[in-house]
Amino acid sequence: MAITADHIKDKLTKELAAVHVDVEDTSQNRCAASFKVLVVSPQFEGKQLLQRHRMVNTCLADELKEIHAFEQKTFTPEQWEKQKAQ
Amino acid sequence: MNTFIKITARCLRSGAQAYLPRQADGRAWSAPARFLCASADPTKDLGEIVKKDKVVVFMKGTPAQPMCGFSNAVVQILRMHGVDQYAAYNVLEDQDLRQGVKDFSNWPTIPQVYFNGEFVGGCDILLQMHQNGDLVEELQKLGISSALLNAEKESK
Fold first, then answer.
1. Which chain A residue shows the shortest CA-CA distance from B118?
2. How far away is chain A from the Cα of B3, in angstroms, using its nearest Cα?
3. For a surface tag, which of A75, B17, B56, B122 has the fewest beta carbons within 10 Å of its beta carbon?
4. Cα–Cα distance for residue pair A43/A38, rounded to 1 Å
5. What is the pLDDT of residues B66-82, one digit of tens each?
6. How many other C-beta atoms can be found within 10 angstroms of the C-beta atom of residue A46?
7. B61/B46 Cα distance (integer angstroms)
8. Which residue among A53, A54, A61 sits closest to B124, beta carbon to beta carbon?
9. Cis amide bond preceding B111, omega within 30
10. Are B96 and B3 in contact (CB under 8 A)?
């Protein structure tokens, strides 16, 4: 199964009730499947960084078996608004 | 059992030197790396490995010569905070360690950072902690005074 940015985006949106997801396919910079994701979800509220990242990892558990490199940024909707304003 | 024999054989052939965790300046720890060669249970040893030192990093390459951009980022961030004494394990030297540490942490990628035996995260998390000031605080809890904290104090 070829993992695409859209597939990842859909999965994250559905399973994490994300209000905003950006997925960048960074594979051309490396020799194997690599992705950079940005996820904004109210489900991250009150959760530590590590917990949030684990939520994303769990959501993409199957895909991550194939993916070689993975970067992620997680925000709550409130943090995302602040981030955009900067 | 086969893995154990393979690891032991590889160890005996190449000498334990290659498997020694290295200090940040590239010098090998003087304690023998028997735990990587002699045990048939990598998970149990990882439990001990991450508690042996305050700061433990599983990375690709060594602090003196990182072999991956993310691993390098972790090394650079720690260096910025003046943390040069830490245990660094090169997963490229040992495929069993590379997979073992992913299973142990339940985390899919390398590098992996541990503070006081507790998993902190990978490069992304360390970077965010560095940017938002959490890293200085976490290091203080370990009894490590960050170089950046000292710099701040001096400028006040």
1. A50
2. 22
3. B17
4. 14
5. 999 999 999 999 999 99
6. 7
7. 18
8. A53
9. yes
10. yes
